[in-house]
Every structure is written in structure tokens, then in C-alpha cells.
């Protein structure tokens, strides 16, 4: 029997509204918690006014929505299925010959749509606002003018060239703007074939401009040759101020659409891009993960709710959600450390959750 369009719309709307309501509740609670925590941190910062605090908390809303979306889908689906079962609506539907896979199709389509919207729309918005949050946090709460991280010895960069690589060291970052970075006390080591040292450049100042590094008061040292002084010197580069800032920032501050080109750039320059690869693949797996949450919710509520107390169903769902969260963190850590390939580390939680939900439903339906 094929499920009717009216029934498809009814089940899909019922589950979608429940998911959005639970998601709104979770995001509201997190927003209140963020405001309280930011007020505590701003208590000793007179420049951090209530307006700034609210801007920072609101800038984190899309990011936190991404984080809690799987839980919203899980709890919203559980509530919807529990209510439909309690009202005997699913019992009547099953008696009419509709299988569990047929009436789960609309909720699965809703979950897949939410995952796709997260990748294509919510994530780019989240990355932009999270960058704004980090800038406000650095300026008003941390008391620094730049979000770029420096080691105790200075800033190290590496860029790919046509013949090899160049390693750039700067003792200080004088200024940092959208399209321009100004470094002081700069040293450049140039290599061919990755490890053949060819020359060294010492400069009092280096400014990153579109397509090139411009060095001031530069001394060039080539093995076996006399050192030379140049007032101004240019070095071609494929780096930009945005890419350098992003390389020091969390992958969460990068849009899904910018991740793949940036990963290629990092790897060509010799940087470790495992964190960015795991994040990219995690975003790609999000529709599958949300569908897995619907399957797990169905496994908990479709039959169990008639025999067990509601508290056991809720407890089982919460435990499943936190176990999945823990497993995701462990898999990501293994991926970053090299214990697992980045793609496997990102897709494993979604894949295992989906297989667990499908196997449980197969046992309940046909076992």
C-alpha cells in the first residue's frame, strides 16, 4: 500500500513542528546561559556594555543551533512519535496496512531537508557571525586587538611557491586588517624541493598586499655569495589576509563553501588540514546524521511507549544523544591525531547511528 499525500503531509508537518519547537526551546536556554556567562566575564570590563553582551550572545545563536540540531531532531521526533502513538493515530495507520518505513518517509525527508539547509544556508551564516563574536570577544573581554594566535617566539607562516616553499617568521604583528597584514622583524627561509635551502631574507618590515609580500630594508643571503641590501623587495604569494587569519582560527569560523578550496591551499603549502577535513566531512554527513536521529527516535517510541513509562523513553533518548555526542568527540580526536582517516572519523557517528536505528526497526517490524 502506498501512503497517501494527505497522510504524508500530516506526518511530515507534525514531526517538523515538533522538531522546530524543541530546537527553539534548546536554543533559548543556551542563549540565556550565554548571556549569564558573558555578564560574569564582563563584570570587570567597563567597555563591555549590555548592548555588546547581547550582540555577542546573538552572534552565537546560529552556531549553537548547528550544535544542538541533532538533539532537536532526536527529542522532537521522540515527542512527535510518542504523541502519535498515544493518540492511537499510528495504530490506526498500521492497521490500514501502512508499514513503519512508509510513515517514516515524511519525517526522514524533513530531517534530510533540515540537514541540507544547515549545510547550504545556516553554516555560512554561522561562520560569519562566529567571526564577529570572536572579534568582539577579543576586543572587549580578552583585551587584545587581534584574534590571530602567536606563539611566545612570534608568528610562523609557510607558503608554497613554484619551485618549493618559503617559511616566514615575524617577531610581531604590527597591524591586521581585512586585506592587509603588517609584520615586523621578518625572516624568510626559501627552499627548493621542500628541503633544499636556497636563500634567506631578513627584513625590518613585511606587508602582505594582494598577490605579494612587500619587504622593506631587506638583506638577502645566498649560500656562497655576498649578502645584498635592498630597500624594497617583493615576493609573490598566494596567501591573503583572510586565509592567514582562517588558518589560525577554528574551522567553525569558515563557511562550508570556502572549506574545500582552503583545505587544498593548506595542503599545497604543507600545513596540516586534518581538522578542516574532519569538519568538512562532518558537515557533509549531517543530513545522514539527522535521518539517523529520526530512526533512533522511532525505535524508542513506536512500540516501547505502550509498554514502558514515559520516563524510561525520555531517559533512553537522552542517554542515546549524549553517547552519540561522546562518540563523535572521540572519533574527531582520533581523526586529528591520525588514528583514523578524516573521512571515516567524520562519517562513522552518522553511519553507525543510522545502521543502529535501521537494525532496531527491522527487528521490531519483522523480527
Output the helix-strand order. HHHHHEEEEEEHHHHHH
Question: Strand order within the widest sheet?
Answer: 1-2-3-4-5-6
Terminal Cα separation, in Å? 21 Å
Note the beta-strand portion.
Answer: 15-25%
Main sheet specs: 6 strands, antiparallel
| Average residue pLDDT | 83
Radius of gyration, Cα only, in angstroms?
26 Å
Number of strands: 6
Number of helices: 11
Note poorly predicted spans.
none
What structural category characterises the helix and strand content? alpha+beta
What overall geometry do the principal axes of the alpha carbons give?
A: elongated
Secondary structure: helix percent: 55-70%
Considering the chains and any ligands shown, give keywords for the structure.
11 helices, elongated, 367 residues, 6-stranded antiparallel sheet, alpha+beta
Describe the structure.
This protein has 367 residues and is an alpha+beta fold. The chain has helices at 5-41, 50-59, 61-86, 89-95, 100-141, 241-248, 256-268, 274-284, 286-301, 310-337, 342-366, and strands at residues 155-160, 164-176, 181-192, 196-209, 212-221, 228-236. It is elongated and about 90 Å long. The two termini are 21 Å apart. The model has no long low-confidence stretch (mean pLDDT 83).
Concise description?
The protein is an alpha+beta fold and 367 residues long.
Amino acid at each position: 500500500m502506498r501512503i497517501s499525500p494527505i497522510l504524508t503531509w500530516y506526518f511530515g508537518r507534525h514531526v517538523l513542528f515538533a522538531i522546530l519547537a524543541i530546537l527553539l526551546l534548546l536554543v533559548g536556554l543556551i542563549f540565556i546561559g550565554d548571556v549569564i556567562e558573558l555578564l560574569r566575564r564582563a563584570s570587570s570590563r567597563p567597555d563591555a556594555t549590555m548592548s555588546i553582551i547581547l550582540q555577542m550572545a546573538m552572534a552565537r545563536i546560529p552556531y549553537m543551533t548547528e550544535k544542538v540540531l541533532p538533539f532537536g531532531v532526536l527529542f522532537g521526533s521522540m515527542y512527535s512519535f510518542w504523541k502519535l502513538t498515544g493518540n492511537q493515530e499510528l495504530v490506526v495507520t498500521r492497521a490500514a496496512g501502512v508499514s513503519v518505513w512508509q510513515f517514516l518517509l515524511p519525517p526522514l525527508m524533513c530531517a534530510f531537508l533540515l540537514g541540507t539547509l544547515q549545510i547550504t544556508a545556516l553554516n555560512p551564516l554561522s561562520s560569519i557571525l562566529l567571526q564577529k563574536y570572536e572579534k568582539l570577544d577579543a576586543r572587549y573581554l580578552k583585551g587584545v586587538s587581534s584574534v590571530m594566535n602567536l606563539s611566545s617566539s612570534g608568528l610562523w607562516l609557510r607558503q608554497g611557491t613554484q619551485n618549493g616553499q618559503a617559511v616566514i617568521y615575524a617577531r610581531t604583528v604590527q597591524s591586521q586588517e581585512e586585506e592587509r597584514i603588517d609584520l615586523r622583524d621578518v625572516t624568510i627561509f626559501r627552499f627548493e624541493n621542500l628541503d633544499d635551502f636556497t636563500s634567506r631574507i631578513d627584513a625590518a618590515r613585511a606587508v602582505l598586499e594582494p598577490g605579494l609580500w612587500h619587504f622593506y630594508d631587506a638583506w638577502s643571503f645566498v649560500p656562497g655569495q655576498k649578502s645584498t641590501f635592498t630597500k624594497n623587495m617583493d615576493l609573490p604569494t598566494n596567501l591573503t589576509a583572510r586565509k592567514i587569519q582562517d588558518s589560525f582560527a577554528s574551522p567553525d569560523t569558515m563557511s562550508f563553501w570556502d572549506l574545500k578550496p582552503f583545505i587544498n591551499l593548506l595542503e599545497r603549502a604543507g600545513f596540516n588540514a586534518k581538522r578542516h577535513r574532519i569538519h568538512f566531512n562532518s558537515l557533509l554527513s549531517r543530513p545522514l546524521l539527522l535521518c539517523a536521529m529520526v530512526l533512533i527516535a522511532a525505535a524508542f517510541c513506536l512500540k516501547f511507549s505502550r509498554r514502558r513509562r514515559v520516563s524510561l523513553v525520555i531517559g533512553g533518548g537522552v542517554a542515546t544523544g549524549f553517547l552519540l555526542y561522546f562518540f563523535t568527540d572521540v572519533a574527531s580526536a582520533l581523526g586529528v591525531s591520525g588514528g583514523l582517516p578524516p573521512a571515516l572519523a567524520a562519517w562513522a557517528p552518522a553511519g553507525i547511528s543510522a545502521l543502529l536505528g535501521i537494525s532496531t526497526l527491522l527487528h521490531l517490524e519483522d523480527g
